[in-house]
Amino acid sequence: MTVDIAARGPATVAALSGEVDLECSPAVRRALLDALRDGRPVIVDLSLVSYIDSSGIASLVEAYQAARKQGTALMLAAVSPAALRVMQLARLDRVFNIRPTVDDALAVLAQ
Amino acid sequence: MPPPTMDDTAAATGHHADMSQSDRPDTLPGDLVTSDREVFANHMALIASMTREFSSSRDSQAVSRHGLERITTFLGAEASSLFLLSDDGRDLYCAACFGPVDVTGMRVPLGQGIVGRAVKRNKTQMVRDARHDPDFGGQDIAEETGFVTRSVLVAPLSLGSERLGAIEIINKAGGDGLFDEHDQTLLEVLAGSAALAIDNFRLTQRLVEQERARHELALAAEIQRSLLPRPTEDAYPVHGINAAARLVSGDFFDIVDCGEEGGRPGTGRIWFAIGDVSGKGMNAAILMTKTASLFRCLCKTVDNPGRLLASINAELCETGSHGMFVTMIAGYLDRETGNVVLANAGHEPPLIVPADGGAMDAVPAEAPPLGIASDIVGPEGYPEHPLHLGDGSLYVFTDGLTEAYTAAEGDAVLGTEGARRLIRRVAALPAADRLREILARVTVPGRPLRDDVTVLLVQGSAAP
């Protein structure tokens, strides 16, 4: 599992890849909370996530809660089929702002 | 006056070191030590005896105090102290000392003072007059106590690249009042075996702590198991089973019978709930216990499963738990009509299994899990599903079942389809046996479960 953080336009893009499970979810959590710290919108690119378990989802939820509390936008983008299935089953698609691509998420921010 | 021997020292301090025939007495150096050979032999005797003492004792404090006293006496010095690196590695603290001034507990930032310098550079420091050393930090002690530091010898304690601390010896008495290369070599050798002894103590301590934690975890697991409802008779309409992947579980189920008669609306209902906390381990187990307690309390006063889940959600959201959330189904069976009403908060879809072996229906979640946001559902609560079971059954389970490895499926993950096949395969058994059989089929002998497994079975009528 890796987390790549990059600035794109007005946002910070955090790209997760590989298996996001109990072992690496603390690293995901830290990376996302760090990314939120400067107040810029955060887009989490999930296109390369092959597996995500409930502790991985919990890291995304914590980032969602932190973003909401500080009034910063947090979007999930290009969610891989494996991750999307988990989110739809638990109806987390009603919680997160999910965009089809990172570009689409950036376009929403630009509006 | 004759120099004190090792026996004198032991007698004076109340300590006694086991000595073999080959042990030689410690002697003060100086005029009485006439040759290098004798110095060497005395050093070896002290090293052998102290190494034995370090390796055989289980009381680190006593060993360090007694050890410092012996080294100080042997080197003919006035005082000594053992400094250890704090857990965060930022400073050194005095763990034990010997001499006229007690500096136990004193802290020195790493890199400061002569001791801090020795540790930072991982190199022995021999200082002729500390008062002229730019790093010397003992002026306060001199002002407060009148104890003046002159010559200093500090050997670092380390194991490979790991720094543990240092031993400091102060004020060589007699002769020119300066430490020499013999003293340095001796202290370095003793520091080597002291470092091993300290490492040993720490490992032992860690083992003891681990053992204590394991014991506490076992107690927690026992309490958690006692919160689960007792197995019910086969004729009873609701059954449940739970197996934890670790000692404690992040899953739970509960069955609360509100009685067959009575004036209060809702009597005759059997409430049931199943939940799965995100993550594993103690934090999940604690949140699970909180959620289960809320359910047990609320189902006795709240009439609708949707509102009940909304109340639990509000409670969980009030005290956030690092993004942890709970997928949960709560509902009740009306034992007179055989009707079930349930609400599903982000949980694995339960299956309605007709008695005639017809197609199964799933009840997917229409709202997200609990504990994420308090405004996720409106005042009417989570959406409710009325189900008429007739002679059929309802199977509610956690994803520990669908994600379990199963030997019968060629060691593959069971999956949703596998779970349906398994449920059909056990259909002819009495209720409690069905759950036991399901659990047995997803348990691979000698291999821990991948995740906690919980299955709840609700029967429309008591007949199997």
From TrEMBL, chain A:
InterPro entries: Anti-sigma_ant, STAS_dom, STAS_dom_sf. One of its GO terms (molecular function) is anti-sigma factor antagonist activity. This is Anti-sigma factor antagonist. Transmembrane segments: none annotated. Belongs to the anti-sigma-factor antagonist family. NCBIfam families: ant_ant_sig. It comes from the Bacteria. Residues 1-109 form the STAS domain.
